[in-house]
Amino acid sequence: MGSSSTRRDYQKIPLLLQLGPEPLSEDFRFHEFWLGLKGSQKPLKALLLEQRLAAGVGNIYADEALFRARLSPFRRGRELTEAEAQRLFAALKKVLAEALLLGGSTLSDRTYQQPDGLPGSFQMRHAVYGRTGLPCPVCGTPIAKRVVAGRGTHFCPRCQGF
Ligand SMILES: [Zn+2]
Questions:
Q1: pLDDT of 136-145, one tens digit each?
Q2: CA-to-CA distance for 27 and 54, rounded, in angstroms?
Q3: Alpha-carbon distance 162 to 152, whole Å?
Q4: CATH number of the domain where residue 39 is located
Q5: CB burial class (10 A; 0-12, 13-18, 19+) of residue 39?
Q6: Residue 22 Cα to ligand 1 middle (Å)
């Protein structure tokens, strides 16, 4: 109900502080997500970390969602086809829903911690994050790591090839 007024409120906030909707909220809609991708020349990893397409996607979840969507973190937003954008949209929802279910990840960057301070178990399910040099769970190729937007970015060079 109140989502349209919330959206107007967001638009009064200076550009740098603009946050997108949370991927598990009703405000996360494919049409807006798609327009945001099409309007950007930035690499997907950088775009996700900006939080404008979707809020609450930290470094770990961005890497895991890109892996599940089988998209290179270096692809530019506007290069994506609609089908690829759909895959990323679905992967973001899936990764965040799973993380929520499993109690989040607690790793060196402290992206998420449970309220009681116990480490979450989402890290047990990481396919790429923190697995540099280990085999990809899908194809066995060693996971690679490169820096994008100042953050360590983990990916499978084969599954997420250009
Ligand atoms: Zn792979």
A1: 999 999 999 9
A2: 10
A3: 19
A4: 1.10.8.50
A5: exposed
A6: 28
CA of 158 to the centre of ligand 1 (A): 5
Q: How far is the CA of 12 from the centre of ligand 1 (A)?
A: 42
- 118 located within any domain: no
Residues around ligand 1, an ion, CB closer than 5 A: 136, 138-139, 141, 156, 158-159
148 DSSP β-pair partners: 151
Q: What domain range includes position 27?
A: 18-104+123-155
Q: Please report whether residue 139 resides in a domain.
A: yes
**Is 82 inside a domain boundary?**
yes
Q: Indicate if the pLDDT at residue 123 is higher than 80.
A: no
pLDDT (mean) for 42-59 = 94
Q: What are phi and psi for residue 45, nearest 5 degrees? A: -60, -45
- The answer to whether residue 40 is domain-embedded is yes
Query: Cα(161) to centroid of ligand 1, in Å?
Result: 9
Instruction: Quote the ligand 1 centre to 134 CA distance (angstroms).
Output: 11
Higher pLDDT, 107 or 71: 71
Number of domains in the chain: 1
pLDDT of residue 5: 47
pTM of the model: 0.80
